[in-house]
Description:
The complex is a heterodimer of chains A (about 260) and B (about 280). Chain A is mostly helical.
Amino acid sequence: MNISYRWPLRLASLAACLLFWQIAANKRLDLGLIAFTYVPTPASVLDAAWHLLQSSKLADHLSSSLGRVFTGYVTAAVAGVLLGLAIGRSKWVEDSLLPPLEVLRPIPAVAWIPLAILMFPSSEVSMIFITFTGALFPILLNTVHGVEGVDPRLVASARSLGAGRLAILREVILPGAAPSIVTGLAIGMGTSWFCLVTAEMISGQFGIGYYTWESYTLQNYPDIVVGMLLIGLLGMASSTLVRRLGALLTPWYRSGGKRA
Amino acid sequence: MSIYQQAPNPGRIEARKLSIRLGHGREAFEAVQRLDFDIKPGEFVCILGPSGCGKSTLLGALAGHLQPAAGQLLVDGTPVSGPSPERGMVFQHHTLLPWRSVLDNVAFGLKMQGIGKTQRREQALDMLRLVGLQDFAGRWPSQLSGGMQQRAEIARVLINRPRLLLMDEPFGALDAQTRSRMQELLLDIWARIRTTVVFVTHDIDEALFLADRILVMSPRPGRFIDDLRVDFPRPRNASLLTSPGFVYLKRHCLELLRHEEGRELPRLTPLGLPTTDHPPLRIAL
């Protein structure tokens, strides 16, 4: 109801930020702690974006970044969900697999970069590994959490209705954990982008992260911001995509929530 | 052939010195102790007792979710060794799968038997008709009222034509009016689909209204303190509740349960001790 009159303020806030950016960059504002001396203006960023759009390089950068994220993320999704189901369902698997994973979990994916470069035959594989690591833990832990959160009464009554182990996994555990898995997949999407961009800055030859870093070294400052915005846009779009797909796969979850 | 004619063979229950332990280590205790009883095929038995007395525990053992610590529990002469579609269980709060429509929930047992989609949906719709939910077949369970959810739950259990129908305070969470309508509906269904019913409740009126026989239980360790015949003619309706015979038996039950007053025990469930809350998610980035 009040959404309609809240939009003008929201847009005005965005516009004010843009305006501040334009003025600060134009006047080369120096606040001592933070300086806008080398910050490009919004107009020059727009210009650079336009140039990038028309060049053939954009497709190369985009396709290599998307390819890496897709490979790393999908591998992480499959591994995370399968491992999560096994850990959540079996105390034996939990005790044998979870301790090493718990030790590795606090290590940020970015910290893996040097070792990954040493461990893998090509920088391509090491970058994919970094995105994989970034996405794996949120997906894995949310899956475990979702599986453990399934109401034991649902499992008991499914058994009473004649369901075997596999049927319980397929009919009760997997859909029961689905909302939590979707949350993990959406968080994992965000982290895998974050990790990919960092990895590309260090060892890439194409890709959005590489493009951003290259722009810095070549002193094409407007391109830096273009790269930043592209990264944000891609991350947001892919997370939204995951959430949408997740909502499609869990239709009962929304209608159930609405009623409560 | 309609589902009503495919009547199940009602099951016979025998318990010999049956004890069930709950909890682990030092906190373990006997929820029910050395129970001896028989339930005849087709009988409607209510187990009446205060909260936490072990009546749900006994039901859980009958369903096969809990194992006896000592003694024997036989259904049709065979020891109960695990859950089976022949022993259908209705919980206090419904356990319909939230991700299946009401129709597919009711058809679940048939799906587990490997019956094809068209055929199982047809039978499920028949069952829904029996409990008056045919118009809600396509809804999500969360879109039904509490009473409707329990009706769907009963239909889902009955589609397997169980020898035993085990009910754990199935109407306990409903409001008084819905509860009395559900009681009449249950008797109506039972008149058509004869199966042995073991119905757990702490509500004296409910037990007297429904049962052929009431087993009264005392808490910790759970033991039967009385075995009452309830011979009111069937079909029964609400006017029974004020008849002199009913009031007389009710007074007797109140007398029996009064001894247990002042001992508040935590509720036990057919799956054992009530579970503690789920641990919070370990946030990871």
